[in-house]
Amino acid sequence: MRATWCTDLHLNFLRPHALRAFYDTVAAERPDLVLLSGDIGESDSVVQFVDEIAEAARCEVYFVLGNHDYYRSGIRIVREAVQRAPRRARWLPALEPVRLSDRVVLVGVDGWGDARCGDLDSKVLLSDWQLIEDFRKARTDRDARNETLQRLGANEARTLAALLARAPATEQLLVLTHVPPFPQACWHAGAQSDAQWLPWFTCIATGEVLAAHAAKHPDTRITVLCGHTHGHGVYEAAPNLEVRTGGWPTGVEGYGNPIVQATLEL
Ligand SMILES: [Fe+2]
Ligand SMILES: [Fe+2]
Fold first, then answer.
1. What are the residue boundaries of the structural domains of the chain, listed by start?
2. How far is the CA of 102 from the centre of ligand 2 (A)?
3. Ligand nearest, relative to CA of residue 8
4. Which ligand is nearest to the CA of 41?
5. How far apart are CA 193 and CA 185, in angstroms?
6. N or C end of the chain: smaller count of CB under 10 Å?
7. For residues 112 and 152, is the Cβ–Cβ distance under 8 A?
8. Under CATH, to which class is 2-265 assigned?
9. Cα(227) to centroid of ligand 1, in Å?
């Protein structure tokens, strides 16, 4: 089974011709399924993009949402929109664990940079806080903002823990998420992101859940596919827990330049 993985496509930056060319690139991978680890578009375009990818690739698309997918709207509104119509592109957190084969199970959560590592007084300001409705009250208040981020991260961890608890025993577990669950998986320009970026680039809460699951299930090989930092890298968090962060080589622009990260043979 061929699973084609893409992340941080940011397709809203593309003109129609380039969008069509990218869909052709995905279809040329001859995927049996497509995995999208968030930042697909923005709130007004993400549903259209996931449907168009499913149409072009002629297979199921499983996706999670990234922070940009909520831009110019709110978290609840976008999550409701992606679940509204029965479609071939499916938002993973709303699904039961998906058995892809007798050896592989897939789960996914969005994740959130949860302000639990790095410099919490960071000078780095994200557009998220201006463009996502959920931060309206916390836009200019650092403590309120960090509290909101920590709450969002905890919610993601709860969803992930519940999914993992319901996942059948399996040889390989694929976990799709937007935000790297460990600081060591926050790759940018070939190195780990610095303390200024880490609070917004890492979801410590989902990492804790994954590490606990890996320790409890030593015979399950867990592969996490994530994005968000736009820097490619692989981190072995435990002997049976590998985190692959999707991205672009150093010096190559990730916005407006969507690529296939990998096609996995499952
Ligand atoms: Fe992104
Ligand atoms: Fe992101």
1. 2-265
2. 32
3. 1
4. 1
5. 9
6. N
7. yes
8. alpha beta
9. 7
